[in-house]
């Protein structure tokens, strides 16, 4: 018996998710005994439908038919943006379907609503791919570190800004020149605001805090400073201090229970594992009362890495 | 309803496991809804029993009474060594109890036997703590990377040798002097053979290959070279090559399916995340066909880190 899945959207991450589920279907079945079958893809871009990357008969433009199909147990939202992603996910949960998404902005904006809607309908919403791409940080917090009190979360969780900062340091170039390089290499969008102003990193920090501590602190409730005002002098100064300058998303839980959270350029000591996170890579350092330090790193974005995390969540739900 | 657990042994890791389950019992219950209760501890050392670290009435010297107790669902083996650890674990599985262990030597020596005995009796054996201590590498391979074909495993999986190599490099001292320091700091045993000759690392590589590829390649079936013959010159040469010398446990799966595995001192490029693994820390780099590179690091040994991984396995079984 296979588990039937619908994908909403067939852009970059949609293709990556489809790839991961199909290319490695035999490995997945051997490891888990489960067969995952993508039975519908919601997509209206005819070029994408005609691309041949998935059988044409999978495509539909009718979301209601997906919701009405009792055989579809899992809906993977990969549309991006706030709407219709938010309402589509809520409708899927209310229709008794599990939801998987990499959409950090939507989860961070409505964390409680998604969690309560899922619980009320006896289903789950999973979003490992929303933080750190392929890096299993949410699984690690919730499963592997479940017997720990996590005291500190420090992450380089935005690949665009880390790429820019690495280039600025390695090549001694200005922010503007490094941003241009990032855009040319596909690591920054034409409008880079959400990345360079730390909005994306703040969304991810909101999610990590919620997972680690069960608190919902919205992205606009803590300090957020981006990298767009940084100069070569700032990086030079960090080097002089024996540090690397990184856009750090950091949250610390004090013994009295208060949480100190921020996203801002921070000098990280060169011997910290965070200092070794270069280019578009992400890294997350967790401080815990039993495990001590746990560091995870890998690709925080991209078609296949994000697809890998989406597929893992889908398989876990199956 | 609580899940009842018996610990076999109350040495360092036994105490760490007990600590993790009791200190963070409220966190565990809040996160999972499960209450884990240690109801028996097999231990005959009277000093340990009298230590006050666990209630005296939990201790027993009668393993049969543990096996005969239908309420005990999980047995955590923390005796170390081959016997009676091996036969105690097999008896627990045959009695229909799940088993959790950090004992890499025993698992590597009898991987197939433990797996088949568990399957025949409808129970599980888990050993996250056996590789990389608190680092969630087995969970990552089996869950988070389930939609990946893993092509390469490279690990610094022995803290003792990594501590010695770090000291040799940092302080420009001989192998013998660094070993002495490691022994003084409790990072090396009086008889360091299993660590410095790469036996411990080979056991862990056997386990990682079995998890990643479903193949059982015993530790004596691949090349193993330890660090006891290394000199300051070897480390100096590595530095000249822009590398760090590390005791690497490495396994690569070629496109034709053959596996090339070894444990030996290896020059690791300075910009590899493996190069940043210092002192007694462990780190594992996984190369995958979807997620690309995933790097995990943390404490590979010690009371609470190992206890953290033991507790996570126990909770997952509960």
Q: What letter string, H or E per element, gives the SSE order of chain A? A: EHHEHEHEHEHHEHEHHHHEHEEEEH
How many strands, what sense, and barrel or not for the largest sheet of chain A?
6 strands, parallel
- Total domain count of chain A: 2
Tell me the greatest interface.
A-B, 56 and 56 residues
What would your notes on this structure say?
Two copies of one chain form a homodimer. With 318 residues, chain A is an alpha/beta fold. Chain A has two domains: 2-134 and 304-317, Rossmann fold (3-Layer(aba) Sandwich); 138-299, Dihydrodipicolinate Reductase, domain 2. Chain A is built from 14 helices and twelve strands. In chain A, strand 2 (35-42), helix 3 (46-49) and strand 3 (59-60) form a beta-alpha-beta unit. In chain A, helix 1 packs across helix 14 (303-317), helix 5 (85-94) runs parallel beside helix 7 and helix 9 packs across helix 10 (175-184). At the A-B interface, helix 1, helix 2, helix 8, strand 11 and strand 12 of A face helix 1, helix 2, helix 8, strand 11 and strand 12 of B. Strand 12 of chain A pairs antiparallel with strand 12 of chain B, so a sheet runs across the interface.
């Amino acid at each position: 018996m296979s588990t039937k899945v619908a994908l909403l959207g067939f852009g970059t991450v949609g293709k990556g998710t489809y790839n991961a589920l199909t290319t490695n279907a035999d490995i997945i079945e051997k490891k888990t005994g489960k067969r995952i079958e993508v039975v519908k893809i919601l997509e209206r871009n005819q070029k994408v439908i005609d691309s041949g990357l998935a059988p044409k008969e999978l495509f539909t433009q009718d979301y209601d038919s997906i919701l009405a199909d009792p055989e579809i147990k899992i809906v993977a939202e990969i549309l991006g943006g706030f709407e219709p992603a938010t309402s589509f996910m809520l409708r899927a949960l209310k229709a008794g379907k599990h939801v998987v998404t990499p959409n950090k902005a939507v989860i961070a904006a409505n964390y409680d609503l998604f969690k309560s809607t899922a619980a009320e309908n006896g289903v789950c919403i999973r979003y490992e791919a929303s933080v750190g791409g392929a890096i299993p940080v949410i699984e690690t917090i919730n499963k592997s570190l479940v017997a720990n009190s996590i005291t500190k979360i420090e992450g380089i969780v935005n690949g665009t800004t880390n790429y820019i900062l690495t280039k600025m340091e390695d090549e001694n170039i200005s922010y503007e020149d490094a941003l241009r390089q990032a855009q040319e290499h596909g690591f920054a969008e034409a409008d880079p605001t959400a990345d360079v102003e730390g909005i994306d990193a703040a969304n991810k920090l909101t999610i990590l805090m919620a997972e680690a501590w069960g608190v919902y602190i919205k992205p606009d409730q803590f300090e957020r400073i981006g990298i767009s005002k940084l100069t070569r002098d700032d990086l030079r100064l960090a080097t002089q201090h024996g540090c690397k300058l990184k856009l750090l998303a950091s949250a610390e839980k004090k013994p009295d229970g208060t949480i100190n959270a921020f996203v801002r350029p921070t000098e990280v000591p060169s011997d910290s594992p965070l200092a070794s996170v270069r280019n578009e890579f992400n890294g997350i350092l967790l401080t815990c009362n039993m495990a001590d330090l746990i560091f995870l790193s890998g690709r925080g974005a991209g078609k296949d890495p994000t697809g890998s995390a989406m597929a893992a969540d889908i398989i876990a739900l199956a």
